Amino acid sequence: MLLNDYMLSQTNTKFQRSPRGNLKIVGFLRTWAPPGVLTALVGFVFLVLRGFGPESTLQKFHVAAANRDFKTLQLLSSQASSPDELMLIQNQVMDFARRGYRYEVRSIQPQARNVAGVVRKDNVVALVNYVQPEGRTKIPMLFVLEKQSSRWVVNPKASLNLMRQVTSAPGTRF
Q1: Are residues 96 and 43 in the same domain?
Q2: Domain range holding 23?
């Protein structure tokens, strides 16, 4: 008899051999270790990726606009836009916030584009509703977000151009 088997046979603990010859603790680990590891892994992935999507960028953009934080707005905006375009969007968002409107993201649609024969989905169009405190009136606004060097940014120039196109088209409704 091996020393380990002898030690187990002499103790009166839960580590006694089961009828099949395995330790009860091994059965416990086989049952609960895989789901535990999977749960920890999924939690870690969600924790790491929190705050990286276009919705998160929109939220940060709205908070910065409401707080008149122009420096943060510049960090969250595309480099292709001018400060005047950024100020125009900031003033619109700030006006809604001052009136007590809350924003809600209604939809985010990926926009595929062809770059050198490769289809890329690094642009999205977000439809945001600004809702009155009473909830009766909803004012829609479109935001164009693009992925630049693995982070999402708002493109004020493209957002304003898209809003102009949509509002000038006859019979357009959101």
Answers
A1: no
A2: 15-49
